[in-house]
């Protein structure tokens, strides 16, 4: 049992009198199986102060190993609890700097702990800062002054510590909160920053129509050379492009036409990293600044492994026409297909240059508002081996049947995350046509990965299909596409 669970289960007044269970027995005694004493103890027995006799260095190391991986706003931080057990433990805890390097801020009340945490963590250890004011902001939605006051206080407190911060994350309700906090970091040197995340829910504040807009806010202008993971809903509040050179994961979300980005500045951000592996873009910029590159790509992301384009089909079309990613293995698309037709109609995609831009592509996830564009997707991305249909509606299942009969010769795995049960007969009919045909032509569909509930339904109602392929409930263990397994694992 971990120390923090043990401490919570004991009466602290008797903590130092815990006596270990003896392993000695006499010949007349039969040893009885026993659980460790601390697993069932309610009132510790009297005995020597064994814990109190531990050397401070060993106790400090035990404290450090016992820190919980998750924290909750309603609970007193574990390190604070340790420091209130006894005078001895308090002295050890307060003089163990690495107990105080993870700072969680939920409200003005918890923000008051920052000064003490910074003092107790010393001057040399790296800091992990997690600002999760979502609940506070939502519950005080009309109190704009109070929220801005908190954001300004956080900015003032944290700005001098930026050079020590290793992980910085925001989870806020309003856009204004991270904007105000980060506005105090323009000339900072984030020399140790490795992971930077900004998420918010609402772009506007109901309390005032005069809330300042983000605009272009430069941050960490003096460098963040170790930054490798950046996920942000504030695409106009970014480190300088020179600070992005070591990024491997970049997620630019909540883009809209109010963004200050143009085609030139946006491409500058995308191409700044030397070894960008994972890129996610959600929304759009002012597309009148983005030329339609009909003849061929204008920039290359040579190391890119996975790309995700969300919400805006025209933005996705222009981006895919403008770029080349010869080693990209996964492409996840989620938008209205009708906005994407300019990609299929481009002269570039009828030439060899268009078909060779993504020659390593294996995983394709496509929109499911209809299947009329499936054949166009098949012609544009012929190399895929895994076809993922996240939420298909099979009223046009004949289009799926046609695409898999005449194209996508390398596809051996079909993935269906979820579908409507009312359309399952159309799915069964399509699969009963597709699977035998692919076997006869030497390009069999080997694996069918489907939603757990659908798998059970199919096993009962369409056992013939289950017998023709290796059918399993889809999971991270059998489907290794990077976006399916969540972007938050990428930094590990």
Main pleated sheet: 14 strands, parallel
Helix content: 25-40%
Structural class: alpha/beta
Enumerate how many helices there are, as a single number. Answer: 19
Number of strands: 16
| Mean pLDDT over the full residue set | 85
- Low-pLDDT segments: 8-27, 41-45, 488-492
Rounded radius of gyration (Å) = 28 Å
First-residue to last-residue Cα separation: 26 Å
State the shape. globular
Share of β-strand residues: 15-25%
Strand order within the widest sheet? 1-2-3-4-5-6-7-9-11-12-13-14-15-16
Set down the secondary structure blueprint.
Elements: H1 3-9, H2 37-40, H3 56-65, H4 78-82, H5 87-94, E1 102-105, H6 108-111, H7 114-120, E2 127-132, H8 134-139, H9 144-158, E3 165-174, H10 176-182, E4 195-202, E5 229-232, E6 249-255, H11 263-271, E7 278-283, E8 299-300, E9 306-310, H12 313-322, E10 323-324, E11 330-334, H13 341-345, H14 352-355, E12 363-365, H15 374-380, E13 386-389, H16 397-406, E14 413-416, H17 424-440, E15 447-450, H18 452-461, H19 463-468, E16 470-473
Parallel strand pairs: 1-2, 2-3, 3-4, 4-5, 5-6, 6-7, 7-9, 8-10, 9-11, 11-12, 12-13, 13-14, 14-15, 15-16
Which terms summarize this structure?
single chain, 492 residues, alpha/beta, two-stranded parallel sheet, 16 strands, disordered C terminus, LRR_dom_sf, F-box domain-containing protein
Explain how this protein is built.
The protein is an alpha/beta fold and 492 residues long. Helix 16 (397-406) links the parallel strand 13 and strand 14. 31% of the residues lie in helices and 16% in strands. The model is unreliable at 8-27, 41-45 and 488-492 (pLDDT under 50). The radius of gyration is 28 Å and the shape is globular. The longest helix is centred in the last third of the chain and has 17 residues, at 424-440. Residues 24-37 have a biased composition (Low complexity). This is F-box domain-containing protein. Residues 21-47 are annotated as: Disordered. InterPro entries: LRR_dom_sf.
């Amino acid at each position: 049992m971990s120390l923090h669970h043990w401490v919570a289960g004991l009466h602290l007044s008797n903590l130092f009198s815990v006596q270990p269970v003896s392993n000695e027995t006499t010949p007349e005694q039969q040893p009885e199986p026993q659980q460790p004493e601390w697993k069932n103890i309610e009132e510790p027995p009297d005995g020597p102060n064994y814990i109190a006799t531990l050397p401070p260095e060993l106790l400090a190391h035990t404290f450090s190993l016992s820190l919980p991986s998750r924290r909750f706003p309603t609970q007193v931080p574990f390190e604070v609890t340790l420091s209130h057990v006894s005078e001895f433990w308090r002295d050890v805890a307060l003089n163990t700097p690495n107990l105080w390097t993870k700072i969680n801020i939920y409200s003005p009340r918890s923000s008051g702990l920052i000064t003490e945490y910074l003092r107790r963590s010393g001057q040399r250890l790296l800091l992990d800062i997690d600002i999760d004011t979502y609940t506070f902001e939502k519950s005080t939605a009309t109190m704009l002054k109070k929220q801005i006051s908190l954001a300004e206080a956080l900015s003032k407190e944290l700005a001098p510590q930026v050079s020590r911060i290793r992980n910085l994350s925001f989870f806020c309700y309003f856009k204004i909160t991270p904007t105000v906090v980060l506005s105090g970091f323009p000339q900072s040197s984030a020399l140790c920053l490795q992971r930077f995340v900004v998420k918010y829910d609402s772009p506007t504040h109901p309390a005032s129509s005069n809330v300042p807009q983000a605009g272009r806010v430069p941050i960490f202008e003096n460098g963040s050379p170790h930054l490798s993971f950046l996920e942000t809903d504030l695409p106009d509040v970014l480190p300088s492009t020179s600070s992005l050179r070591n990024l491997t994961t970049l997620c630019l979300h909540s883009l809209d036409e109010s963004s200050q980005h143009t085609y030139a500045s946006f491409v500058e951000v995308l191409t700044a990293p030397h070894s960008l592996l994972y890129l996610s873009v959600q929304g759009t910029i002012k597309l009148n600044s983005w030329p339609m590159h009909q003849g061929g790509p204008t920039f290359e992301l040579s190391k890119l492994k996975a790309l995700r384009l969300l919400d805006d089909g025209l933005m996705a079309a222009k981006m895919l026409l403008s770029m080349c990613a010869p080693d990209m293995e996964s492409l996840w698309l989620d938008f209205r297909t009708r906005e994407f037709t300019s990609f299929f109609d481009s002269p570039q995609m009828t030439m060899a240059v268009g078909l060779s831009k993504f020659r390593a592509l294996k995983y394709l996830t496509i929109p499911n508002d209809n299947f009329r564009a499936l054949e166009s997707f098949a012609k544009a991305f012929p190399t895929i081996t895994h076809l993922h249909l996240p939420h298909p509606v099979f009223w046009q299942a004949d289009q799926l049947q046609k695409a898999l009969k005449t194209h996508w010769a390398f596809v051996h795995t079909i993935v269906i995350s979820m579908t409507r049960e009312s359309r399952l007969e159309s799915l069964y009919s399509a699969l009963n046509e597709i699977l035998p045909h692919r076997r006869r032509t030497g390009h069999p569909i080997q694996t069918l990965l489907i939603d757990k509930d659908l798998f059970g339904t199919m096993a009962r109602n369409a056992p013939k299909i289950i017998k023709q392929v290796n059918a399993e409930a889809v999971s991270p263990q059998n489907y290794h596409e990077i976006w399916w397994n969540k972007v938050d694992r990428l930094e590990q």
